[in-house]
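Long-time lurker. I teach an intro course on protein structure, and each term I like to show students one example going from raw sequence to a predicted 3D structure in token notation. This year I'd like something fresh instead of my usual example. Would anyone be willing to generate the tokens for the chain below so I can use it in lecture? Attribution to the forum is fine with me.
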Amino acid sequence: MANETVLSTLTYAPLLTTTLMKVLDSGALNDQVFNADVFLAWLRGSGRLKVIDGGERIRVGLLHEKNSTAGWYADYEALDTTAQSGMTAAFYNWKQGSVSISVHGRELRSNKGASRITSLQQEKIQQAALSLADVVATGAFSNGDGSGSKQLTGLAAMNETTPGTTAYASVSTANTVWQNQVQSSVGSAATNLLPSLRTLHNDCKQGKGGASGAPDFGVTTQAVHEALEALIFPQVRYQANSKGADAGVEKLMFKGVPIEWDDYCTSGELHLLNSNNMMLFVHSDANFKMADGGFQKPINQDALLTQIFFQGNLATNNRRKNGKLQGVT
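-- Reply from a regular --
Happy to contribute to a lecture. Here you go:
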């Protein structure tokens, strides 16, 4: 009987591996992970998700000073050829996440047959995708200290409440250009939300960059989003609608910036972000990839087991173009 159990388990290992590989190759698991969360879905948008193939750390080039040789000249006047620095780099550590998918022998024997095994596998994949999405989405709003600093380094680190407190991406706190914008201790939303949001938007927009220098996405909590809607709703212009009255604002905008709410956002916060300066880096070999060898049988268990791996981190190349409201009540 023991030998029969092993043979049955090993017979289904290739089927389970093939089924999972088809899901991973189709991108279905990526869709479930990224689209399960508003902020992750936005990051996945054009140009924000960067799949790279290596490096000890993630390196992002930064410009923090102007080129001093730019200027006017006349005729034969000597041109300024002073060597320039003003460039540095931010380094982000790789952060790794995984989810395991296991099927024990009784499940395999109770669902005997290719079609029933495949159906069981789909349920396992769905469970794994939702669980991994929760891990990545939680990390996207964290400061990276969770799980012994193995967690994704998210918005809590990128947008500090007190800029210049902690070194970020291996750049010293002495570099004042490498600091986010913030409006802290905002307090009552009814009184202070719109003025604070206006100031934060302008602070993020200031400096060169034209239209591309302004924030183009905002993410907050459900409570702050509803408070903002209550403030904006009286200003809405109404048009006749044959479908009937509609009490509410379908899409909140502030100075042309869409403001969304996300279950994972930290209470009392609203982040303004610039898509030109935000990236989510993912390693090509751990971009929701299955472990080499597929499903394997542990030596001491009547089961089959594999993992799906994620390796990456959230990054910015211009921290001062992002900011947050903190302490909104």
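Some talking points for your students: The mean pLDDT is 87. Residues 2-55+92-236+247-325 form a domain with the phage-related protein like fold fold (CATH 3.90.1690).
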